[in-house]
Design goal:
The chain has 628 residues and is of the alpha/beta class. It contains 22 helices and 14 strands. A hairpin with a 4-residue loop joins strand 2 and strand 3. It is elongated, with a radius of gyration of 43 Å. The structure holds adenosine-5'-diphosphate. Adenosine-5'-diphosphate binds next to helix 7, helix 12 and helix 14.
Length: 628
Amino acid sequence: MKSWRVALLWALPIVTIGFFIWQGAFANPGFTAGNNAAATRMSYGRFLDYLDAGRITSVDLYEGGRTAIVQAVDLDLDNRVQRLRVDLPMEDPGLVSRLRDENIAFDSHPIQNEGAAWSILGNLIFPVLLIVGLFFLFRRSGNNAPGGPGQAMNFGKSKARFQMEAQTGVMFDDVAGVEEAKEELAEVVTFLKKPERFTAVGARIPKGVLLVGPPGTGKTMLAKAIAGEAGTPFFSVSGSEFVEMFVGVGASRVRDLFTKAKENAPCIVFVDEIDAVGRQRGAGIGGGNDEREQTLNQLLTEMDGFEGNTGIIVIAATNRPDVLDSALLRPGRFDRQVTVSAPDIKGRLSILEVHARNKKVSDEISLEAIARRTPGFTGADLANLLNEAAILTARRRKDAIEMVEIDDAVDRVVAGMEGTPLTDGKSKRLIAYHEVGHAIVGTLIAAHDPVQKVTLIPRGQAQGLTWFTPSEDQMLISRSQILARITGALGGRAAEKIIFGDDEVTTGAGGDLQQVANMARQMVTRYGMSDIGPVSLESQSGEVFLGRDLMSRSEYSEDIASRVDSQVRNIVAKCYEDALDIMRDNREAIDRLVDLLIEKETIDGDEFRQIVAEYAEVPEKERFVPAV
Ligand code: ADP
């Protein structure tokens, strides 16, 4: 808040209090004899007594003779002169002649109207100040940042919070690795540039395109690139910004947005996170959210409202197409769906090439090697990776990004900030055994991803880490692979138990056990990989419709539920036994690896495998190496 507003807030109560004090002093309209107001009062009878006793020295008459201020000699106080106020009960003509006779100085003062004027002003000034103050306060907060306290007063005139870019400056070339999506969308550019080609043959130009894909895969960039290629303005708004406290605000925002868009047609309107407004209506406890439904209705009405060839194309993005209201997806609305998935190795390479353009990269770096190391990374992750590497390079005062920086950046992006290494001690030894436990299971089970490195340098929440090289772009995972992962995840706890005994196992395995439980339960309830058989016992909708799911719960009987539990337990128990066996059989190798790990802090995958091979047979792992 600005300082003058704070001052104003303080000033209001101070002015109010000041006003009342001032009223006390001036608001008596008749008697305005200045400081005389403070004189002590004396009764009329006493005044006459004093007069008789010759103790009055002067008399000043006020208000046409109704009040007097007199000066009297006080005999009790050493003849000191006192000022006293006397209310005269009636006009007493005899008084004046008596004063004259007794030679007492007297004077008469006129009635002062000035006081009345002040008083009227006084009565007015406070309300005026208050009104002016309030006016300023509301005006300021009304102009404030969105969501300020004045927002509530403004709900009638919605402030559409969309952004408009006349030229996005993004081209299809800037978006890499999503070739299929680009091909589909190239047509949209033609709709915008040459609509007559389609309308001439009676084709209706689609109004909406839904981009579906995980966050960071370049959906916003694609939408901008369409506008950029077609040279049209780009309006963007996020679905969540429609949803406000007051019912109807979202709807009026939608109206505003489309009014502006129509003025600027042909153009692209991009609605990010459309699932925030476009969820199935009527879902949730108590019938859902009125505001959201009204907003959605307005959006549907607007999309129906503009003719096929007004040149507005609405592009919406979501990563949850399954939760969208079916009315949004019917022909005439978002009838085109374009999937933007996480890039494959080729895609990653081309995204890296795009983002390496404006960075200094040393010659020794192979972008292909980076692409290989980063399965599952989205475009945003890769952009972030190169940026982190560039920051590290600058911090290390090097001229160009080298492979060490890339490696460090990958670790950082995946596992978080590097912490300070542990000092040697019992817990470091325990963590070393835990990690070597994971790594040795990973090395000795054929179906497990190979170890990339084991480290005791803490990152993020983890005190030590074992990295595995995930196999390239796996779409399907086999039962033996999941079992291998479960066994590997239990390797840490198994090592702790075998080396230190049951009483010494630690909380370090908490995260591992959670993963284990998830994987085992999914094997049983989703993938039909247990003795219960190939049945799916779980809907995939996740928790977005909490209300709906609660109400239509329990797709299976209690009997099945207890069978699921016992299957999960069996799977985990079997894998744990396997992990314990590996620990018992390879104790020597494990001890040596732990000593080496404590000494070096990090052991890389090849060295790890060589050492294990001296004690046991290391299975060959079948790796699918895709061509680039
Ligand atoms: P989304 O909208 O899918 O969440 P964005 O389009 O906002 O993702 O992407 C975020 C950032 O990630 C972009 O600014 C860009 O730097 C980078 N990025 C994502 N995908 C790509 C891609 N396919 N090609 C190049 N850069 C990409």
